[in-house]
Design a protein that fits this description.
Blueprint (H helix, E strand, L loop, with lengths): L1 H21 L2 E8 L10 E7 L3 H15 L5 E4 L13 H11 L3 E16 L3 E6 L10 H4 L1 E6 L3 E15 L4 E11 L4 H18 L5
Length: 209
C-alpha cells in the first residue's frame, strides 16, 4: 500500500507540472470601466513601450497582426511614431492617432525579465526491474524499484507586461490588465498568449470589437 501511495503521488506531481507548464502566461490583474457603454473599439493603434527599437517594432507588428480579425484592425505605432522618447508631446500622439484613423489606443509596457529562484520538491520515481521473474503473488510490489530524487534550486524567468486600452473620443482608459509569463521561450509565444488572454477579456468586457 505504501508503494501504491508513492507511485500515485509521483504521477500526480508530474501531471500538475505539465498542467502548469501549459499555462506559461497568466492574467494576474484586470480592470474595465463599468460605466463604459460602447461602442466597441475597432481600429487600435498599438504602442509598445520597449527600450529596444528593434524589439518594439517586432512586438508591435506581431501584436497588431493578431489584433486584426474580421472588422477589427491593429496598427503598429512605430510607422507613425518612430521615436517614442521624442514623441512624448500629446499633440504628436494625437496627430498619429488621427492619421491612423484609430478609435482606440493600446499601450503595452514590458518590464524586462526578472529572475527568481525556487526549490523543487523531492520526487519518488518508479523504475521497472528488468530481467527478474516473480510469481503471480507479490509481483506488483516487486516489479518496480523506487528512485529518490532530492529537490534542487532552479532559476525561473518571469516577464511582466502591463496593457492599457484608451478610448480616443473620451481620452479615458477603459481597460487595463497585468500579465505574467513564466519562463517564456520567445516573443511570439508571449504575444500569442496575450492575444488569447487580453484580447479575449477585452471582447468579453465589451470594450473591443
Amino acid at each position: 500500500m505504501k508503494y501504491k501511495h508513492i507511485l500515485f503521488v509521483s504521477r500526480l506531481s508530474a501531471l500538475l507540472f505539465l498542467l502548469t507548464a501549459c499555462r506559461s502566461t497568466l492574467l494576474v490583474e484586470r480592470w474595465n470601466d463599468p460605466d463604459y457603454s460602447g461602442p466597441a473599439l475597432k481600429k487600435i493603434l498599438v504602442i509598445g513601450v520597449i527600450k529596444s527599437d528593434e524589439r518594439r517594432r517586432a512586438f508591435e507588428n506581431e501584436f497588431a497582426l493578431l489584433i486584426t480579425e474580421g472588422n477589427r484592425k491593429g496598427i503598429a505605432s512605430h510607422k507613425l511614431l518612430p521615436n517614442l522618447e521624442k514623441s512624448d508631446n500629446k499633440a504628436q500622439v494625437l496627430a498619429a492617432v488621427e492619421k491612423a484613423g484609430a478609435d482606440g489606443v493600446m499601450i503595452v509596457t514590458t518590464h524586462g525579465l526578472i529572475n527568481q529562484q525556487r526549490v523543487t520538491r523531492p520526487t519518488f520515481d518508479p523504475v521497472p526491474n528488468a530481467g527478474r521473474s516473480y510469481g503471480m503473488y507479490g509481483y506488483y510490489n516487486r516489479s518496480h524499484s523506487i528512485i529518490y530524487n532530492p529537490g534542487h534550486t532552479v532559476t525561473d524567468t518571469l516577464l511582466r507586461i502591463d496593457t492599457k486600452l484608451f478610448n480616443v473620443a473620451s481620452e479615458k482608459m477603459i481597460w487595463s490588465g497585468k500579465t505574467e509569463s513564466f519562463n517564456p521561450t520567445s516573443s511570439a509565444e508571449v504575444i500569442a498568449e496575450l492575444e488569447k488572454l487580453v484580447i479575449r477579456d477585452m471582447r468579453s468586457s465589451g470594450v473591443l470589437e
